[in-house]
Design goal:
Blueprint (H helix, E strand, L loop, with lengths): L6 E6 L3 H12 L4 E7 L2 H11 L3 E5 L7 H11 L4 E6 L4 H10 L3 E4 L3 H13 L7 H9 L8 H11 L4 H8 L3 H15 L4 H11 L6
Length: 210
């Protein structure tokens, strides 16, 4: 395949070791070319404008602008952009948000060695890519209401061991309001108690301990 017909790729990740690993993998493929790299979402947008890649590999969590926000911004400016979200974190919530933002693929970094090249080719060809285990989780929770921003704030406080009273002080809301949010969180997540709710939320990708 001629150089002008190679799949042009932009790699966006705040860890240079991940970028180096991806670059090494792509260098082995005759039908692909890594045209640019970026370490955050804002730089990714600038690099995209400059190089117009065919496929963008976008880290989900980065400083300054995360992958979800960068994907939404890119697609607003470049509606035909094909973006694959990369993440360390499994969980249907992250995947659902990625696809709602317009991503065409979702890939766990633990799968890069085995699945990266085929995912790039599939997305470049116009297909979506969702790891089977993630697709199963999305299907299992498709009718579940997402936690609101305030419910997540409360849950993050609970995860640090704060009592309802301490949460109310931290978030500047009444203790009764905190209790209401906790009830909603337990109901939405199907959790038995506060600790169980934190575990479920982390498993599903609502937040992490990173």
């Amino acid at each position: 395949m001629g150089a002008d017909r190679r799949i042009k790729i932009l790699c966006v990740d705040d860890h240079h070791l991940i970028r180096d690993g991806i670059a090494s993998t792509i260098a082995e493929e005759t039908d692909m070319e890594l045209v640019a790299q970026a370490a955050n979402g804002r730089d990714a947008i600038q690099e995209f404008r400059k190089y117009q890649p065919d496929v963008t590999l976008m880290d989900l969590r980065m400083p300054e602008m995360d992958g979800i926000a960068a994907t939404a911004a890119l697609l607003k400016e470049f509606p035909l952009a094909r973006i694959v979200m990369l993440t360390t974190y499994a969980g249907d919530v992250n995947a659902s948000r990625a696809f709602k933002s317009g991503a065409r693929g979702y890939l766990l970094k633990s799968m890069l060695r085995n699945d990266l090249v085929e995912t790039i080719r599939r997305v470049h060809a116009g297909h979506q890519h969702i790891p089977p285990e993630i697709a199963h989780e999305i299907a299992a929770h498709i009718s579940t209401d997402e936690l609101t921003g305030r419910e997540l704030d409360v849950l993050r406080c609970i995860a640090t061991g704060k009592s309802n009273k301490a949460v109310s002080v931290s978030l500047r809301i009444s203790e009764d309001t905190v209790k209401g949010h906790v009830r909603n969180v337990l109901s939405k997540l199907g959790a038995n108690d506060r600790t169980h709710a934190v575990m479920i939320a982390m498993d599903r990708g609502y937040f992490s301990t990173r």
